[in-house]
Amino acid sequence: MRPAKTPRGNQPVRDGLGFGADGGEQAFADLGYRSAADAVADRSGRPVRDLPHRRTTEHDLGACRVFRKVRDRQPEDAQREWEALGSLAALGLNVPEPLFLAQAGARTALGMREVPGCSLLDLLPREPAWGSRFVVSRVAPAVRVLHAAGLVHRDLYWDHWFAVGPCDPDGDAFLIDVERVFRPHAWLRRRYQVKDLAGLVASWPDSVRVRVVGLRFLRVYLGGGLPPGWKRLARAVLRKSRRIRAHMPVHGEPPRWFTTAAGETR
Fold first, then answer.
1. d(Cα 250, Cα 219) in Å, to the nearest integer?
2. What is the pLDDT of residues 17-66, one digit of tens each?
């Protein structure tokens, strides 16, 4: 499969409407929209996720599939995700290609090109050998770039990593759901970096051995070796991962990795 294009930069949002650099206006028109109000009011599309005040739908345009994330409030969240998609792509990270952002009042609709791959949360149990190599060779360098830029994800679980070209050794890792990406103050940066790494450990499938993979991942993440202090970092990550797995979210829908294939919570 061919990876989605990396956007060259998003247009600023004016009069409630902004377009991505490649194909955003055409996708907007192909969906039948003439205004921002049309984009936020549209009830069509295949439901992908439906939460209070936020829903995601899939739309097949023939030439491509578009995922449209509609929020009923907090338009700043959509603006933050729009900007994060551009910023992360500028770092060379693979993220969904943003097509358009529409705002009408407090409601927003963010359109993104489909990432033609499969969630690593689903792939790792099915292809543990390939998946273990993939997360070391593709995901670890990407997390290193993210953190080296002073940014953190804050929801860094395996259902937010997609493999394009599953089981292809030359496939790419894509990071999705980037609305919470931000740049913490320098004195808080390590705390948030530990939380990101702990999210990966906490959401690692129980059926796949993590110890050896985790050490290899850490070597790549730290720049190809294990410098002094790596054990202290590893212990902090493991402590935080245990706390993450021990607590269900108080608000909102539990992350998908909290649920086993049998439908039981971890």
1. 34
2. 999 867 899 999 999 999 999 999 999 999 999 988 999 999 999 888 99
CB atoms within 10 A of CB 227: 9
CA distance 195 to 19: 33
> Which has the closest alpha carbon to 140: 186, 176, 107, 93?
93
Per the structure, the complete domain to which residue 250 belongs is given by 117-258
**Domain count across the chain:** 2
Question: Are both 135 and 188 inside the same structural domain?
Answer: yes
Residue bearing tokens 């209070």: 52
Query: Which of 235, 237, 233, 211 lies closest to 222, judged by CA?
Result: 233
Is residue 169 one of the residues assigned to a domain?
yes
CA separation for the pair 146, 94 (Å, rounded): 11
Structure token pair of residue 183:
């740049």
| Exposed e or buried b per residue across 237-262, where buried means at least 16 C-beta atoms within 10 angstroms of its C-beta | beebbeebbeeeeeeeeebebbeeee
The secondary structure element, H or E, covering residue 173 is: strand 172-175
Q: Which residue has the tokens 């070796």?
A: 225
Helix axes 230-246, 211-221, angle to 10 degrees: 120
Domain boundary pick from 113, 148, 173: 113
Residue 54: strand pairing partners:
51, 71
191 and 59 in a common domain: no
pTM reported for the whole predicted model:
0.86
Same domain for 90 and 151?
no
